[in-house]
Amino acid sequence: MTRDAVVFGIAGVAFGLLVGWIFGSQQAGRPMMTAAPAAQAAAQAPAGNQPPPLDLQRASALEQQAKARPTDAAIRAELGNVYFDAQRFDLAIPWYEEAFRLNPRDVNVSTDLGVAYYYTDDPDRALQQIAKSLAVDPNHVKTLLNQGIIRAFGKQDLVGALESWERVVQVAPDSPEAARAKQGIDGLKSAHGTGTPGATAAPTGRGGE
Question: Which CATH number is 2-201's, of 1.10.1740.10, 1.25.40.10, 3.40.640.10, 1.10.1060.10?
Answer without folding.
Answer: 1.25.40.10
